[in-house]
Amino acid sequence: MTLLELITKPSTENSPTTSDVGNYSIVLNSEALLHQLKLEKDQNDDVSLLQRGTGWKLLSTDVEVIELGQNFIKNLKKKMKNPNTFNKDEFFELFGSYLNEIWEKLWGAVLGDGLDEGNIVKMIEKLGNYMGRDVKGLVMEACVVLETWEVLGSLIVNGLVEHSGLSSLINNLIEKKQSWLVVLCVKHVIDIQTYDMMCVLKYFLSIPRDEDDGSLVNVRKEWESQAMSAIEKAMDLSLGPIRMEIARDASLLLMLAHDGFSVYEMCLHYLLASRNVDEVILGACISKLSGSEIMILIRYLKKWLNKYERFPQVCPCPKAPFELGLKACEWVPSLEDVVKCLGLVVDEHFLSLVLHQEFHEELKSLNEVVNSLTGEAKVCGILSNLTETLKSRHRGL
Fold this sequence. Notes:
- By secondary structure, the protein is mostly helical.
- It folds into three domains: 52 residues, no CATH class; 146 residues, no CATH class; 174 residues, no CATH class.
- Helix content is 66%, strand content 1%.
- It contains 19 helices and two strands.
- Strands 1-2 form a two-stranded antiparallel sheet.
- It starts with a helix and ends with a helix.
C-alpha cells in the first residue's frame, strides 16, 4: 500500500465515529482530549506506517457549553425576527443568562449580581473567549439593531470581532455615527481591510461639524484624562526620577496631541499612528479622497508640522504605556508618520495640488515649515556626526 493510500484510507472507510464532532465548531480543552487517543491495531497490515487513532471525543463540559451557544443562537434569532417588540432589557436578560450558564457549567457557580448593561460588559471580559463564532456575530448584529453600544464596545476591545463581519460592522457604525466605536475598531482590530480603512479615513475627514455626535465625547475625554494623568505623574515624587522624567516627556507629547486639535481631528490621530496601516494601505486610502477631504487632511498635517517645529524636543515615549499606563502615547503620530502621510498626499494628488488654486496657499505655508524643519535636521545631523566622531576619538585615547 502506498503512502498516499495510507493517508486517504481513513477518510474513505465507513467505520462509525466515536462522537458527532461535526456538529461542534470549537474545542475548548484540547489537551485533555489528546491524552485519551490510542492507536487502533490494524490486523491486515502490521507494518502500516499510519494507524487510526481511537478514543477521540469531546469532553462533556465542552459539549454542554457548545450546545448552550446553539440554543442561545436559536432563541436570539427568534427574538430578532420581531425587532419592534424586542428591546434592550430582553436582550440583556437573554444574553446575560447565556453567559451565566457558561460560568455555571465551567466553574459551578452563578456569575454577576444583575443582568444590566454594566454587568454584561464585565461578563464579556471574563467569558468572551468561550463564545463561538456564530454567537459573537449574532450578538454584534443585535447590539447594532438595539444600539447597545457599551456591550458592542466591550466585544471590540476584547478582540471578539470576527473578520467575516468586520466590514458590515464598520459600515453600520459609520451609518449610526458612532465615532468612538469606529476609533475602537482602529485601535483593537488588527485585520481591517484596505477598503474598510478607506471608509474610516473618509468618515473621519467628513464628520459633520454642526451635528451633535455624543460618542465624540469619549474621544476628547480619553485624551484629556491621559494628559492630566501624565502631568500628575510628572510631579509625583514617589515614582522616582527616572519615571518622573518619562512622565514629563509623555505630558509634552500628549499636550501636542490635545492642544489646538478639534475632537474630529483627534480621531485622525488613531489612524495615522496605527501600526496596522502601512504606506501601501494608507496610499490606497488617500488616493480615493475628494478635493475637500484632501484640504482637511493637509490642514491637519500642517498643524502637526507646526507643532513639531515649535517643540523640537518632543519625541515618542515608548516606555510611557508600560511604565506609567499612559496608553494614549501609543496613538500620537510621530513626525515620521506625519511626513510619510504628507508625502503620500503629494504623490497621489500631485496634479490636483498643482492645478487647483485653492491648494496653493496651503502648500506655500507648508513649504515654509518643511524648509525650517529640514534646516534643523541638517544642523542636528552635523552635530550628531560630530558627537560620534568625538566619542570614537575619546575611546581611542
